[in-house]
């Protein structure tokens, strides 16, 4: 029971607490309400004031609204008004324009009146400039408008009469001017020619003026050119310029035309306006074609170009059909001057066309602002140039040049090879320098023609000659081999050396053959350098001579030059071939016995034997001194790059031979020690003899020596295995067999299981 | 260094106006230029194609057919890997000249050069040379044969792709040969078969 009671008490107590809390909350709310009420009462006053002031503003706003409406109506009125005014002004403006037009027409009519009076007097007074001026003024007036004016104003018969007079005067003047011009040309009165030339455009005879004037200039050109040609034909052989006299005549012709253009172009531009140069030039071009043809005719006749070309193609045919010739060959030297002249002719024509193209293009660009018209005119210019006889002549000249140059190059190189001589003290013979001098000359000459196609063709031909003929000669000489004979090599060298010093080479077939072989080897390796230089210089020469070539054209040239790099590949193979020859005949037979001496030496030494061995002539001392004398025989006679290659060959040969004999020997600890020392000294010696690194060739040998030099067999684990930084050149099997060379004395066979595959 | 493994020179020859330039344009640029003027000297185009996943660069030399350019064009024969001899199937004289062209190829080109005979302009109605006549000629002279139309793009792609494939096969077998030879050398230098060295050094 008591438990129940206390439970009830507790519940009551809780209820009471709750009620108390609610009461507190309500009290607090009540207070808040009171505060709010007070606040609102305070605000009432402020709001009242506001309402009062607002009610005062209302009437003012009303006024503003009324005024604004008034303003709107005023503005719309104004706009209406202005529109009305505008409507009235428009016709006025049109009227004003008409008045202007009328005024102009009246002044035109007045002018016509005046002109019609003036033109007659002018014609009578032979004042053609003024007469033409009147006609020009008349022609400027819109003719159809004039007709209308005349028909509309029928009562103004004087106008019609004036127009008639002027039309008559114009045709009269045209006839007179043509006649006068022809007369002036006939009398060679330059002043009058120019005077009437200037009148043509005033009479609207632009094309006719240009044609007549240019025909006159062509006449002048013909006279000068004929005179020049006659002088050329009379030039004596003694004259300095005899050999290029036809090229000179052609140059004079081109320069003459260029001068005409330079002098008369401003004249044409001033009186005829821009854009007339094309028609002028197409007329001049005809004369140019005519004169070039005449010059070339004489050139062909006197230089016998065609005959020589026929002869060359005949020779080429004969040499192909193996029935080698009774036909007399042309000495390439005789062609030299002719080729030179052809080159000049071609380059002058090229320059001339460049000049024409530049001048006319500029004139067209100014004269025809309309793009479409411009393109059309430029196309016409292209046609004028490409269909001109001179252009055909230029192409033919290039073709002839290439035939001559090809023959020249081939034959000159042929000659250089046949006349090959070795100057004492030189590593290479004359044919290398001569050949590359010739090729360089030919390519330079091709560059001088100014034709990229010409340059490319000569480069292609040069590649052909080098790859087929030149490389063939070198390869053949090396194919003869390096004879060893019965003489000791050192001795042979001495003989060779003295004969070189004394400038005679008859001391025996073998020595001569040896020298020939070594020189051919040197020639080949020097040629590689020369070809590289040739490639570079050609590229820079052409870049200078033709600065404006497109990237496609450059690609073309580079592609042709890449033919030279296949020549280099060829030459490298020949050097390689020669070195193999040398290795087989001169290196290997010498080195083998020297290295084989190793087998006669005891490599299981006691301490006493070791000191005794080291005191005497060791195997390595002998080998090095032998190698030294062997290399010395070649040191002077080979070029440095060939010598380096040779040292490499010797090093490879020695190390492989040495490896073989080591495998046939057994070692003890001291034997291994000596071997290690000796191989180090060998590698050190060969390293000093060359600028190339040859340590690589001794990598295997050094490792073999290291293995044989181990104190204890277990030391191999320091070297062998994954942790080791050493790159092994030996396979595990090889390593095992090498270690077994010491097994007999020191290592236990079981120890070799260290080496796992 | 450009990204290609093989570089081949292809030279087109044949009479003027048989459509050499059009064939080259069709292949390299995919267009047929009407009213083409005569080629001056030699034109040069490059297109890289893919054969068996390998990039092959074709250097195409489009020569002028006119006699007067012969001494320029002849100089390109020697280094060509492939020679395309083109005639016009609607023009008997261009076919009749083929023996002359073969003589020229014989004289100037390498004996190993790949030779292809192409009869162009099969879009034309006025055929003068029947297919079998062209075929006969080609087989007699040991050449590939194909008829094309540069205008309609017929067989043009096929022509050049066939050349690229053949030359690549040739080069690969030669490459193997060279490799064998090289291993015998002590220096073990490998020689490069494409002669692009100079070009890449210059650019």
TrEMBL record, chain A:
<dbReference type="InterPro" id="IPR048682">
    <property type="entry name" value="COG4"/>
</dbReference>
<feature type="coiled-coil region">
    <location>
        <begin position="9"/>
        <end position="36"/>
    </location>
</feature>
<keyword id="KW-0472">Membrane</keyword>
<dbReference type="GO" id="GO:0007030">
    <property type="term" value="P:Golgi organization"/>
</dbReference>
<dbReference type="Pfam" id="PF08318">
    <property type="entry name" value="COG4_m"/>
</dbReference>
<dbReference type="Pfam" id="PF20663">
    <property type="entry name" value="COG4_N"/>
</dbReference>
<comment type="similarity">
    <text>Belongs to the COG4 family.</text>
</comment>
<keyword id="KW-0653">Protein transport</keyword>
<dbReference type="GO" id="GO:0015031">
    <property type="term" value="P:protein transport"/>
</dbReference>
<dbReference type="InterPro" id="IPR013167">
    <property type="entry name" value="COG4_M"/>
</dbReference>
<dbReference type="InterPro" id="IPR048680">
    <property type="entry name" value="COG4_N"/>
</dbReference>
<keyword id="KW-0333">Golgi apparatus</keyword>
<protein>
    <recommendedName>
        <fullName>Conserved oligomeric Golgi complex subunit 4</fullName>
    </recommendedName>
</protein>
<dbReference type="Pfam" id="PF20662">
    <property type="entry name" value="COG4_C"/>
</dbReference>
<keyword id="KW-0175">Coiled coil</keyword>
<feature type="domain" description="COG4 transport protein middle alpha-helical bundle">
    <location>
        <begin position="166"/>
        <end position="479"/>
    </location>
</feature>
<dbReference type="GO" id="GO:0000139">
    <property type="term" value="C:Golgi membrane"/>
</dbReference>
<keyword id="KW-0813">Transport</keyword>
<dbReference type="GO" id="GO:0006890">
    <property type="term" value="P:retrograde vesicle-mediated transport, Golgi to endoplasmic reticulum"/>
</dbReference>
<dbReference type="GO" id="GO:0017119">
    <property type="term" value="C:Golgi transport complex"/>
</dbReference>
<dbReference type="InterPro" id="IPR048684">
    <property type="entry name" value="COG4_C"/>
</dbReference>
TrEMBL record, chain B:
<comment type="function">
    <text>The small GTPases Rab are key regulators of intracellular membrane trafficking, from the formation of transport vesicles to their fusion with membranes. Rabs cycle between an inactive GDP-bound form and an active GTP-bound form that is able to recruit to membranes different sets of downstream effectors directly responsible for vesicle formation, movement, tethering and fusion. RAB30 is required for maintaining the structural integrity of the Golgi apparatus, possibly by mediating interactions with cytoplasmic scaffolding proteins.</text>
</comment>
<dbReference type="InterPro" id="IPR027417">
    <property type="entry name" value="P-loop_NTPase"/>
</dbReference>
<keyword id="KW-0479">Metal-binding</keyword>
<keyword id="KW-0460">Magnesium</keyword>
<dbReference type="GO" id="GO:0003925">
    <property type="term" value="F:G protein activity"/>
</dbReference>
<protein>
    <recommendedName>
        <fullName>Ras-related protein Rab-30</fullName>
        <ecNumber>3.6.5.2</ecNumber>
    </recommendedName>
</protein>
<dbReference type="InterPro" id="IPR001806">
    <property type="entry name" value="Small_GTPase"/>
</dbReference>
<dbReference type="GO" id="GO:0005794">
    <property type="term" value="C:Golgi apparatus"/>
</dbReference>
<dbReference type="GO" id="GO:0000421">
    <property type="term" value="C:autophagosome membrane"/>
</dbReference>
<keyword id="KW-0547">Nucleotide-binding</keyword>
<keyword id="KW-0968">Cytoplasmic vesicle</keyword>
<keyword id="KW-0963">Cytoplasm</keyword>
<dbReference type="InterPro" id="IPR050227">
    <property type="entry name" value="Rab"/>
</dbReference>
<dbReference type="GO" id="GO:0046872">
    <property type="term" value="F:metal ion binding"/>
</dbReference>
<dbReference type="GO" id="GO:0005764">
    <property type="term" value="C:lysosome"/>
</dbReference>
<dbReference type="GO" id="GO:0005525">
    <property type="term" value="F:GTP binding"/>
</dbReference>
<keyword id="KW-0342">GTP-binding</keyword>
<keyword id="KW-0449">Lipoprotein</keyword>
<keyword id="KW-0378">Hydrolase</keyword>
<keyword id="KW-0458">Lysosome</keyword>
<keyword id="KW-0472">Membrane</keyword>
<keyword id="KW-0333">Golgi apparatus</keyword>
